[in-house]
Amino acid sequence: MLQNTLDALLARHFTANTPGAVLLVAKGKEVIYLGSRGLANLQTVAAITPDTTFRLASVSKQFTAMCVHLLAQQGHLQLTDRLSLYFPELRHLEGVRLLHLLNHTSGLPDFEEHIPESQQAQLTDEDVLQLTAQQQALLFPSGSQYRYSNTAYVLLGLLAERVSGKNYANVLQEYIFKPLEMQHSMLYRVDALIPNRAMGYRQANNGDFILSDQNIGTATRGDGCIYTSALDYLKWWQALESNFLFNITNQLKTTTSSIDDAKGWKYSMGWFVSDLGNGKYEYCHSGDTSGFTNLVLWQPEHDTLVACFSNTAQNHTFLGELLQELKSFTEYSPKSELVYHLQELTR
């Protein structure tokens, strides 16, 4: 039943000649559904497969948070440390702690709003640091409210470099990808050869698909530059519960910021968190960037994962229909309304 439903969903939205998507549904160690449709690259006519690597966009944030968590576990830092301890150039932005960056309560200015009009090259993480250092004040006192911040996660990627003494790409490989045998995962670089890479597209008003793989803000790393495949992401998700090094279920429940107390909506360690009551939680995150639209949904109560990666920008109609179809399958359907509000919560 689920197989037929999701096959039909993919067929409604994509053809063998358009950009497409891969869709994974898992329960514990079992893959319940794994399907794909469309092209990873319109020029080479390479089809999307379970090994196709997609830019995760903001789904990358959970990997950045994990690097910081692992460095803390090793005693290299504490989540309560002040940001200025590692970035003296930001000492004038007082009161910001690492935990505030992880949970989007830092108050740091959005770097996207301060890009010089003369900027032509893609921004680097160091560019973001310099732009942030030029700002005279926080948007609000750190820890006082939730405000989604790509700046914060760019700085966390730089933090991992400064603390470890290694390039961030190497930190990811050494701490996460190699231990979990995620052989189809890597960090984007302009000159990097990314195997099985999906290129990103947007659909024009006339229906044509236009290459839209990069823009001026898509080379920053800690906030959204990881490429991975559906099967590699499955390894990652399974490790979050079963591997003691990567198990962050306690942090997801306790190290949180509040988005809406009445609804039980929170943010923690690169995940949106829904407190369903009675000790039950639900986790999700979206990833939207130039040419890509992604969604992951984790329900610990049922030990299930739904992951969808698409190489089409603003592909929210497809994701909306996916969530609608999942309502017929209780184990995989979200219980909270939070997942339907990710677009507004990640602005």
From TrEMBL:
Xref: InterPro entries: AmpC-like, Beta-lactam-related, Beta-lactam/transpept-like
Superkingdom of origin: Bacteria
Domain Beta-lactamase-related: start-end pairs: 12-317
Database matches in Pfam families: Beta-lactamase
Name by which UniProt lists this protein: CubicO group peptidase, beta-lactamase class C family
